[in-house]
Amino acid sequence: MQDSPLVSVCLITYNQEKYITETLEGIVMQKTDFPVEVIIGEDCSTDNTRKICEEYIRKYPNLLKPLFHNKNKGMMGNWIATIQACKGKYITLCEGDDYWTDPYKLQKQTNLMEVNPDMSLCAHNADILEYGTLRQLPPIEKDILSTTDIILQDWGIMTASIMFRKDAFDIPDWYKNIKNGDYGLQLLVSLKGKIGILPDVMSVYRKHVEGISTTLRQLSQAAWVIYLLYEFNKYT
Question: What's the mean per-residue pLDDT of the chain?
Answer without folding.
Answer: 93
